[in-house]
Design a protein that fits this description.
About 25% of the residues lie in helices and about 25% in strands. It is α/β, with parallel strands linked by helices. The longest helix is centred in the last third of the chain and has 19 residues, at about 175-195. The protein binds beta-D-glucopyranose. Beta-D-glucopyranose binds near residues 71, 111, 112 and 163.
């Protein structure tokens, strides 16, 4: 018999510089499908990424609405920057494109913001950084998001930005030991700037963090990038 009380299912999409991931969540934000992943297409134009998403959703089943995290500044569903994707994303209405393509309502925010929503406790000043292709950042006060923080493109040290010193290209160039040393310096710099109560470190490379962390700093799973999708619909 059909379940007439089936809860609202949210398709959560995490668009990254190296991979695109999707998963369906129930009303409480729990996964109700496998996580599906495909490499980010090259060149990562809006059209190519939209085709990859269309491909990916074939394996995750039904959903009623869509949440997407995008690796750039997002305002009212429109992507304004995309340094690790393609210039065609500037001014692209991703929320409309997703809802037209998949025929469901869609909401889009910055990927680090979405990751943070899946991880924070909702108390005090909470900062999130994500270590992946790029360097993501998100700031929350008592659970309320300050959108599009973009620390990654701020000057950090030696004339370079946080992303130039700690993004995947830097990690591959200087190796894990040096990268960990740089991360320690970045944490100290961010601590003095934000005086956060908690710092969360996520993203695909967070598993490589080897430095000893104080109690108010937590490594979070990359899965939070998708789990945060449910929070976009909490009005
Ligand atoms: C982008 C951010 C994004 C981060 C992680 C940076 O290059 O500017 O918007 O959150 O990469 O993907």
């Amino acid at each position: 018999m059909a379940d007439t009380n089936a809860s609202t299912r949210t398709l959560s999409i995490d668009i990254g510089g190296s991979g695109i991931k999707v998963m369906v969540l129930d009303e409480n934000g729990n996964a109700i499908s496998e996580r599906a992943r495909l490499d980010t297409p090259q060149p990562p134009t809006p059209e190519a990424v939209m085709n990859t998403i269309t491909q990916l959703i074939k394996s995750v089943g039904e959903f009623d609405r869509i949440s997407a995290g995008f690796p750039g500044v997002v305002r009212a569903g429109v992507t304004e920057t995309a340094v690790n994707l393609h210039p065609d994303w500037v001014g692209y209405n991703l929320a409309s494109a997703l809802s037209e393509r998949l025929q469901k309502p869609a909401r889009v925010i910055n990927d680090a913001d979405m990751q943070g929503l899946g991880a924070i406790a909702g108390k005090g000043v909470e900062l999130v950084i994500t270590l992946g292709t790029g360097f993501g950042s998100a700031l929350f006060l008592n659970g309320k998001l300050v959108p599009n923080l973009e620390m990654g493109h701020h000057r950090f040290r030696k004339g370079e930005t946080y992303e130039e010193q700690l993004g995947r290209a830097a990690l591959e160039k200087v190796g894990e030991a040096k990268w960990n040393g740089r991360l320690g310096k970045a944490i100290s710099s961010l601590q003095h700037l934000f005086n956060y109560d908690y710092l969360y470190i996520g993203g695909g490379e967070a598993k490589l963090v080897k430095i000893k962390l104080p109690e108010n700093i937590k490594i979070i799973s990359n899965l939070n990038g998708l789990l945060g999708g449910i929070a976009l619909w909490r009005d």
